[in-house]
Queue: 2 jobs
Job 1
Amino acid sequence: MPQLLLRRILLVIPTFIGIVALTFFLIRLAPGDPILLIAGEHGVSAERYAELQKQFGFDQPLFIQFADYLSQVLNGDLGLSVVTQTPVLDEFGKLFPATLELALIAMIVAIAIAIPAGVLAAVKRNTLIDHSITAISLVGYSMPIFWWALLLILLFSVNLGILPVAGRLSFIYDIESVTGFMLIDTLLANDKEAFIDALHHLTLPAIVLATIPLAVIMRMTRSSMLEVLKQDYIRTARAKGLSEFSVIFKHALRNALIPVITVIGLQTSILMTGAILTETIFSWPGIGKWLLEAVYRRDYPVVQGGVLLIASLVILVNMVVDLLYVLINPALRQK
Amino acid sequence: MKYMTSSAGVPGITPWQDTWYKLSTNHIAVAGLLVLIILITGAVFAPLIVFHDPHEQYTDILLAPPFWHEDSKPGFILGTDDLGRDIFSRLVYGARYSLFLGFVIVCLSLLVGVAVGAIAGMKRGVIEAVILRMMDIMLAIPAILFAIVIVAILGASLFNAALAVSIVLLPHFVRITRAAVITEMSKDYVLASKLDGSKGWLLFFRVLLPNISAPLIVQSTLSFSNAILDIAALGFLGLGAQPPTPEWGALLSASREFIETAPWTVTLPGLAILITVLASNLLGDGLRDALDPRIDQS
């Protein structure tokens, strides 16, 4: 097994270098002069042009440029934002907690609803409950989430007026950022009203972001449970006279969860996709909104660095999930 | 357990007839297929169905509500938008963009993906490793983000958005084709065909492709719904179809500011997207069940 784990970890290296290469060539594939793109719409003087050319190394051969870029990336230098002139990594670090908080809450909501619902659907197979849960999962899976967000705003903010439509906290509260997680920071500041306000701001974006993972996990739990419930050891467990609760939760669910965990891991990428749309609609100050704005402004260093960081995050999470999969799966553990 | 779930092996019945038989007993999948057929018919015969030109601005009828409201205007069954354009006409014409683009995107992705996947599966070795690594890299970047970046580089247009989405969908086709080719290559009929002199693309198209078509058909249907969602998302973000093109995502984006005064301008285009995506997902699920022999006896 250690070999299997090591192989999986080593596999990340070529993928990572490939992603660095992709983001590197990205800016060079853009039509037009990359320096003019970096300089922005206002144009540059000949001096400034030469300066920028030297700064970005465009006067060097391509492979030297790539080697330089790779070593910069490995040293944690992702360049400066053209718009704000601050390091891309600093901007990412400042905004990431907002996205992480939203994504974690969304994932907790999704898992907390999806697994019990999936189990229920499998146990009550072909009943009204099963059909309803399956229908919800199908609609959730097909949902254009940017429209779903607007529908929720229409209902909860426009018509009922009970939930805010934008931001993480109302302007009246002034909370010091310690962890970057608004829910924790408001608690640390011991401001109960601000905590509730933050929770209100989080509700709609979290529901929107949770929708697709919820549908996917529910569906997977149901089909995995159905598969497991057919197995001989379940029949044995029942024949032993174990309670139905014990059969389902101790014997069936624990085995059914193995493929579900893989699917949960795969949601990282879906959450990041969702974050771009959700954060844009709810003006949530996270990396999704930041990246999209960088695209609109043609802030290429931010686009380059942001894509690299998000992709690295995705491969890292996928690797951890794969390792977990080996560790929790008895069939693979023995190898 | 139903008896007679499959007619496979019955003399005189082709695999396609068998698939159709199984699909036709799945009412939900058939419903999805019917909805898709209605939508496609509507899109093709759009000029015969609608009463108004989708770009015609009736400046004296701005933001008229749909027919179930008291203030609705006769002739404008789903109301009008902020420029007085008939929403029903715009939605029907919008179906042309979503369905046609979805189809083109899937064809492009399927064609390139099958070719690359076949090379990986038949050549193996270094070529396969390089192709697989490249697909891993593409899959590591979240779909919409990847599409947004491609569009940002190429410029915002419907054509570039479609190109970006077909690139994003590519890795799935490559992986499925490769896996299926490797499985089939070890079978006797392929060996027999090789001994008979088939090799290269001839072997692939004549011998392998018909036997690996089932997973590809399922993936195509599911990719079709993804393509429609992604095109709409790009349109919504202003990176796909540009106004006044009546593409559904662009319609949603344009009507966002009227969510309080004229909510129907927001609800209707989204509903159109949801119905189309749901229908093709239902059909895709049905096809998967019908084509997957493992589910035969359940």
Note: Chain A has a mean pLDDT of 86.
Job 2
Amino acid sequence: MSLDTATVRRIASLARIKVSDDALDHWTQEMNSILGWIEQLQQVNTDGVEPMSSVANMTLRQREDAITDGGIQDKVLANAPDATAGFYTVPKVVE
Amino acid sequence: MSTTYTIDGETGPWELVIGLEVHAQVISQSKLFSGASTTFGAEPNTQVSLVDAAMPGMLPVINKECVAQAVRTGFGLNSAINRRSVFDRKNYFYADLPQGYQISQFKQPVVGEGWVDIDLEGGEVKRVRVERLHLEQDAGKSLHDQSPTKTFVDLNRSGVALMEIVSFPDMRSPDEAGAYVRKLRTIVRYLGTCDGNMEEGSMRCDVNVSVRKAGAEYGTRCEIKNVNSVRNMMLAIEYEARRQIEILEEGGSITQETRLWDAGKGITRSMRNKEEAHDYRYFPDPDLLPLVLEESFIEGIKATLPELPDAKKARFMSEYGLGDYDANVLVAEQDRAAFYEQVAKGRDAKIAANWVIVELLGALNKAGKDLAESPVSADKLGGLLDLMADNTISGRIAKDVFAEMVESGKDAGTIVEEKGLRQVTDTGAIDTLIDQVMAEHADKVAEYRSGKDKLFGFFVGQAMKRSQGKANPAMLNDLLKKKLDA
């Protein structure tokens, strides 16, 4: 499998990463070499091996259902460039 | 078996294929992965932790109760409970999703396949299969109408736990889809896992609709979003099916897409075609380990499940001898079923059902009130039925007394005494009534005796009127018959 520049452009846009046109070739090569390495890994026989979700041999820690957080509107909005009346504001998005 | 619902096009009848994705907001104190409150309607961004706002370095920790609620709901849907499940990131970009991804479950949901039996008209029951139930985070809320140039974002809802319940495409008509959503709502309300309030958005559904000719393969489906009531969902399904049929009959083809229901116009419309089609790039969330459920945890939940609607309905039918319709109406809400059982206890169960359904629910419906606001308690209604059972009042008078109870909240005995409504059961008094009526209508008596026995009802009516409705109807009938036939 290998990626073309159009696919790389699309991946960048999905990830909201700005990639200039003259850098596209470079990134396409980089990503293709990663994919090449993965292809190499795929030669290993993994029949009957469960996909691994985590390297830690632990299960998920759970917490009790209690209100222990919140009430920090000022902190939550501290980095917002344009907060109004307790809301974040962003350029209008209408579906 | 009812006939298959179809919509007639120019080329003949078309069948509908409907599947539903229902998002049910989990009842819990705090959010799925943070300790912020889930209470509805607080000041903007006051129920937001730094986890919910996706500040760098914050890590999610799962809420045990949300997991329990999902498992509980799984039992309610007769579903497999998966001992191991995995959280994934569903990536998309939107202003009210600060993480840039929603934590959801993709390949390994906490609850697997199950089913829901839906009750259709005429007592027919249909089984709709459930594909899965998974836990995920809700997004924040965008307000587009506060400013001409800006969208306001409130993250209070961001991170609240949702259960997404996905059905198989087993429904074939708007009515079936409606019955499915109502049944789900009843089940989650019984379990206390979601309040089922569609208007406030704590239950939302996305509808997948396609059409086909009888026996053909599934057609291409469209997904309809933004339906916020059962009624709107049913309207949206029918509109969307007709739209697809028209396209197909004109030789076109259906494009798989997401459409929005516009309740004001009664149409579905294509969502602004995004430059990028949905490409969620799911992958296991590296911040979260697999969720493993202990047998003891699952058994503990199973042991404390309430009696569910289907079981309750079956019991009402066998224990109280109720018909399908009455049983369905009574079990639709847990408090209604409990109210009924209290009225029925030690009394005639069918009469109790009739009074709860026809008189009480009728009166509440008319007044726009919930059962919880009923001016007539179960004990008071029971008291009224007792007065009927021991012949203190007749059924007809009981309706007047009930109307007064709804009005004043007084108990039946008090009203009967105050208004002197006690039924006349003294044979002497009834005899006197009858004698008066017969004397007044001697001509009719003669007609009756010469064979016009339809006049019997006339005499009953006259005598009852003279007693102001208080004569015991059975005794009146009896004595009247004896006197007329003498």
Note: DSSP finds three helices and two strands in chain A.
